[in-house]
Amino acid sequence: MADQNEAELVTLEEAVNKVKKWTDEKDWQNAKEGCEEILAVDPQNKEILDILDNVNKNLGQKETTDEIPAFNLNMQAKQEPAPAPEVKQTTPPPPTTTLPQEEKAEKKSSNTGIIITAIIFILILGGLVALFLMGWLNPFYNWLLGLFGL
Length: 150
Hints:
Blueprint: E1 8-11, H1 12-24, H2 28-41, H3 46-58, H4 68-78, E2 96-99, H5 112-134, H6 138-147
Antiparallel strand pairs: 1-2
Helix pairs in contact: 1-2, 2-3
């Protein structure tokens, strides 16, 4: 999981979606940590309890959803003390937890406008050349030559 200073506040729904994404990607450790953070905020969340049971099976642990709250407390006692999750209460309060959000993809600049402008310019220029070669622009050409005294 991300360091405390890098964590961002997310809603419970966003956190659940992030955990589902991690389970789809088979990133079991992040999925487990995310489930534990969500359960710290919403311990009765059936969906997360089911996901955590599946994650534990994939990690080779035999915990069931009935044993999960005791398991979480025992794991915290054995490991280094984890920083407390930041919880943001809003009105109406959807419970929130800290999970790293994906970095937003930088918007890549597109050359489409330049390409379209160049194509239009080439078409107009080609059309003018074609009109000149067919003789339709000869009166205009003669007028221009007369303007400059040529």
